[in-house]
Amino acid sequence: MEKHPNSPDNNKLRKRALDFLEKHPSKKINVPAEKVEELMEELRVHQVELEMQNEELRRANLEVELTRDKYLDLYDFAPVGYLSISEKGMIMEANLTLAKMLQIERGVLINRVFSDFILKEDKDIFYLHRKNLIQNGVAEPCELRMVNKNEEVFFTQINCILLNDNSNNGLLIRSVVMDISERKRTDAILIKSELKYRSLIETASDGIYLLADDGTFVECNPSACKMLGREKNEIIGSLITEIDPNYSYEEFTDFWKEFPFDEQRIFETSHIHKDGSLIPIEISARKFKIESSIVYCAIARDITERKKSENAIRESQERFNFAMAATKDGIYDWDLITNEIYYSPGWKQMLGYKDHELKNEFSVWEKLTEPEDAKKSWDMLNAHISGKLHRFELEFKMKHKNGHWVDILSRAEAIFDSKGKAIRVVGTHVDITSRKKIEKELIAHRNHLEEMVNERTKELQEKNEVLEKFNNLFVGRESRIKELRDKIKLLEEKISK
Length: 497
Fold this sequence. Notes:
Elements: H1 8-23, H2 33-76, E1 81-86, E2 91-94, H3 96-102, H4 106-109, H5 123-136, E3 142-147, E4 153-165, E5 170-179, H6 181-203, E6 207-212, E7 217-220, H7 222-228, H8 232-235, H9 240-243, H10 249-257, E8 265-272, E9 278-290, E10 293-302, H11 304-326, E11 330-335, E12 341-343, H12 345-349, H13 362-368, H14 371-385, E13 392-399, E14 405-416, E15 422-431, H15 433-496
Antiparallel strand pairs: 1-2, 1-5, 3-4, 4-5, 6-7, 6-10, 8-9, 9-10, 11-12, 11-15, 13-14, 14-15
């Protein structure tokens, strides 16, 4: 870049040169005339070289300034605080970020004692950190609580390196200060959450296990130990095959191989108690990935009592089924809350149907029951459900599959909740067709006997009337005979006199 001969920079430089020659006359050179032209040409070339060098210097200087500004911005506006601390603990330099952390102007920080901004309880931590750094040349990062201008405490992590301070022939500590308050708050929340969930795990009534991908137990809670009758150190490190006899290692891995992460899997198995007995267990388990490791969390519930109850219910159901098979009675169970109803196979068989031929729907009863009887039954059942009638017992007719009517005796009891509301009706149907037939035959026979008795009574009444007439005639004759005898006796008395 060519400069104008009269530019300010050239004028200044020329003036300096003239001043130099005035002060140093010996530096003046007498040049022969024939050499002046040659010398002028040489000077012009040299001037151009100097100008080119000057331009290169100016460009390099500009790049240095730009680089300095760039790194100055990086220094001042970095997300962390930078500072230089003297061997005596004075702040020699600090960036804007640190000033912002402390809420103090950067100029005010210079030559302040750094430890003035450290919480009193943590000053010893930094003292030992600085001492260790000076003695050993290196020191591990340390965490400090610092205080800003408004006396607000915040958490920091400080990393320091030791340098030689050539300007003061001493040591200089370059430090990076990171505000870790948010991390500390997060850590506190995590610790609180961990304590909470650990408390839940430790106090849970179910056994909780953590297994590694190879089927090794790595953690368990007190309930798991109690359930198995083992100490914790007897469980940790054990293989799944030592606790659960139903799975080999290959079966365990196959069991979980294709199962998705974080999905629940519930199944029943058994675990081995320390005394060798088997405990029926219900497992609720999930597969997780923690960092690069696969782990399994299993919640184990002892279902011994439930199994006993299930066996008792099954045995009771079997006895009930045997009893129902041995009797011809039918049973129905009506849930008043859901309006679902159950008809036993005997109930359906009574009407000539197989179990699958009639649906368990209330409309089935309404459809097969004689309409007048259905109305009577509804009225009585509603009275029983409302508590007005103590017991439901009614005879009615239902249509058989073959078309004839079956006489039914229905008895039912309503079940009430704690508030006195009917929630269920359980009842029986008894086929009384044969009994009804016998009753009709007995009534007919009784009517026939009554007719025979009435006819015999009439006949006896007629004969009694004839006898009564004969008796009346006989009684009158006896009276006349007695009168004649009395008269004869009077005549005889008169004759004897």
